[in-house]
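Supplementary Methods, section 5.1.

A reviewer requested that the exact input to the structure prediction be made available. We therefore reproduce it here, unchanged from the version used in the analyses.
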Amino acid sequence: MVIDFQLHAEDSTSAARAGVLRLPLKSGVGAEIQTPMFMPVGTVGTVKGLTPGDLRAIGTQILLGNTYHLYLRPGHERVERLGGLGKFMAWEGPILTDSGGFQVFSLSSLNRIEEKGVEFRSHLDGSKHFFSPELSMQIQRSLESDIVMAFDQCPALPSPREAIEKAVRRTQAWAERGLAVPLKPHQARFGIIQGGTDRELRTQSAKGLTALPFDGFAIGGLSVGEPPEVMHEMARFSAPLLPKDRPRYLMGVGRPEDLVEGVRAGIDLFDCVMPTRNARNGQLFTSRGKINIKNQRYQEDQGPVDPECSCETCRTYTRAYLRHLFVAGEYLSIRLNSIHNLAYYLKIMSDMRMAILEHRFDLWTKEFYAKQRGGLETSPD
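The structure derived from this sequence is encoded token-by-token as follows.
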């Protein structure tokens, strides 16, 4: 195993757990990730609108980059020549790269799946490309990320059982082929279980993948069209199928309540574009629910976005000013809103970790939901 993962506490009322994930990093200087942890998404080598300094200031411990997007531009070979993704984007901490599988299937309206891999057209210019599990590993090796994800097939939901079963078989075969591709010494590998909402197929996928020498495992194929309560149910079912002594990662999730339910299910790592995407649309997450900063009620509101948040945005700027920036279309709006939303997500993770360590996670969860139900916007404008 390339990584070291140790559990420090487990909740007595749920499967929630707190631990430390240690990665060697390319530099040889180890990095520690306090779990549970949320990973901001830096798809093309940037978390939109934010600098590495912004990310460090809000407590970011690990970022996510994407193989598909970085392959198309600026190109993985160029990134490698420029010193790897971390050096290229001036981020000194750990990076996890998604394999590109999800984007190959979701962003290209014209793709052809076969046992060797996937032929697809770029969403940028329509040019034709082919991804195989071997190429995905080679690209991620060039990017020099610290956690490399196996190439998988992620079917949309709902899909016929036959299609999901075929995706499970391909994901297993592609994982085995990817393991044959050598990586750089510091790079860890995570496998991805599939199976949609079918318990039998989830069990089959987990059994096959956990027999392989992966450093950690991800639960893929959720939050792709199914209702949230179904996603929560499948996370609770899937997490115990994975080794207790390896990190567990729920991919592409989600809303604050999805993070809480994921941690309660025994998940350690999360990622999602929601905090930054919603920030760009003026929706801000707070300890008492979401607010839409463009609403007229904030025109002369001199309070912070969230009185319980200590991020730069909440310490410095009023809701009235943030509304003005958003309505005026100012670029600063994107930065300040994104800082707050990511800081809020990271604070949730930190608060849950502390609650698990102090054996009060059940109480914390009840208080979280009570505050969310209270809300800040009790009536529409």
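The chain has two domains: 35-272, 279-374. These observations are discussed further in the main text.
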